[in-house]
Automatic annotation (TrEMBL):
This is POT family proton-dependent oligopeptide transporter. It comes from Povalibacter uvarum. Residues 28-428 form the Major facilitator superfamily (MFS) profile domain. Keywords: Cell membrane, Membrane, Peptide transport, Protein transport, Transmembrane, Transmembrane helix, Transport. It is found in: Cell membrane.
Length: 436
């Protein structure tokens, strides 16, 4: 990914963060990904339990549970569209993170009470609206415009936050499945509180600009005109990622149901791997595969264009679902061995690393300083539409055999890849113009 120089960043003359470093990067990057790590611990911890909780404890039919799951995750990614604007125009990104995280923590603790189930989901989604776009939009403020480390900052950030997603199913999933749902949901709330404490305690390592409200007058006319030229590209990429996420987000929905009912998870006599534990493999594989992929990409020399790399990732995820379709067909109604699920997750995560960190970096790099949180919110709006689509697609699970369903998801991911390839050349032109 090429480094994009923002005219607005130099025009604003924003004060820089302290230059002390950890692990070869500004200390603020560690503070940001540790904060996000605990937020992801709370999110994935709750998500690992959500479908199981609805179908087993609340006795919801599978199709209804899939719709609730899809609507909740979609709404959680719709609120950042408004939250990003509020952060940029009224609160400042630091205040938005603190307020949003506090609201989310309250929602996670509310999940411990059955009577508050729907209000709790709404509370978490509302808090996420302020938190989600405001934190990652601070990453590039840690670097000078010509700092070569900017090109890998989001990859490191993405790896760091997955630590929380690794821990979540083991902690929240185990507590919820073995000791009671309220224990798992309560642990998710505690994780969110820890993230807030880290962020507040490490604020000294973040630039002053994250405390400030960015006004429209602060942006130059040239900066606004440049962003409007980029906007068409960004909206087009969002539309294609919506399609991709329709298949991608089945990991916590129908794939979780398949793992629970159609996978032999026994390991030796008398012990079965909890279904929620397999959801920890995806973020764990992010740790393992990211250094390998970065090394391969460095050896290639010239980096693959961002949108083309995203298309490759979508094709790889399509291949992962083809694998599940073949395994389901071969099983013939019997349970498949859990090794096949692990293999699926390896291929699936490889595709994820091609598309999601690349997209986040693209939107972060093309964002003007005065619309940083808003631009990141635009990227996450793909998750809104994608999760809504995933909920609708997930409702097909009970209407067709598993092999046909997974093959359909492969088709959805392949469609997204094909659409991304169509905009690859226009995207290269925009990026080439911005780099000059």
């Amino acid at each position: 990914m090429s480094t994009i120089v923002h005219e607005g960043a130099s025009a604003l003359k924003i004060a820089s963060a302290p230059r002390a470093e950890w692990f070869g990067h500004p200390r603020g990057l560690t503070i940001l990904f540790l904060t996000e790590m605990w937020e992801k611990f709370s999110y994935f911890g709750m998500r690992a339990l959500l479908v199981y909780y609805m179908t087993k404890s609340l006795a919801m039919p599978q199709s209804q549970a899939s719709w609730v799951y899809g609507i909740y995750t979609a709404f959680a990614y719709f609120t950042p569209i408004v939250g990003g604007l509020i952060a940029d125009r009224f609160l400042g990104r630091r205040s938005a993170v603190i307020l949003g995280g506090s609201i989310m923590a309250l929602g996670h603790f509310m999940m411990a009470f059955e009577s508050l189930f729907y209000p709790a989901l709404a509370t978490i989604a509302l808090g996420n609206g302020l938190f989600l776009p405001s934190l990652p939009s601070q990453v590039l403020t840690l670097y000078d415009a010509n700092d070569p480390r900017r090109t890998t900052a989001y990859n490191i950030y993405y790896v760091g936050i997955n630590l929380g997603a690794v821990l979540a199913p083991f902690v929240c999933g185990t507590l919820g499945e073995l000791y009671g749902w309220h224990w798992g949901f309560g642990a998710a709330g505690i994780g969110m509180c820890l993230g807030l404490l880290i962020y507040i305690g490490g604020s000294q390592y973040l630039p002053e600009s994250v405390r400030q409200v960015q006004t429209r007058e602060a942006a130059s006319q040239a900066e606004r005109d440049t962003f409007m030229k980029r906007l068409g590209l960004l909206i087009g990429v969002v539309a294609m990622v919506v399609v991709f996420r329709g298949a991608y987000e089945q990991i916590g929905n129908t794939v979780a149901l398949w793992a629970d009912s159609s996978v032999d998870r026994s390991v030796g006599p008398g012990w079965t791997i909890p279904g929620s534990w397999f959801q920890a493999l995806n973020p764990l594989l992010v740790f393992m595969l990211t250094p390998v992929l970065l090394a391969i990409w460095r050896k290639r020399g010239r980096p693959t264009a961002p949108v083309r790399r995203m298309a490759i990732g979508a094709f790889i995820v399509a291949a992962a679902y083809v694998l599940l379709a073949l395994v389901s067909q071969a099983a013939g109604g019997l349970q498949a061995h859990w090794v096949w699920l692990v293999l699926f997750l390896i291929v699936y995560t490889t595709g994820e690393l091609f598309i999601l960190p690349t997209g986040l970096a693209l939107f972060g790099q093309l964002a003007p300083a005065t619309l940083a949180a808003t631009s990141i919110a635009l990227w996450f709006s793909a998750s809104f539409g994608g999760n809504l689509l995933a909920g609708a697609l997930g409702s097909w699970w009970s209407r067709m055999d598993h092999a046909t369903f997974f093959l359909s998801m492969a088709g959805v991911a392949a469609l997204a890849a094909s659409l991304l390839l169509l905009v690859d050349r226009p995207a290269r032109n925009v990026l080439r113009t911005d780099a000059t």
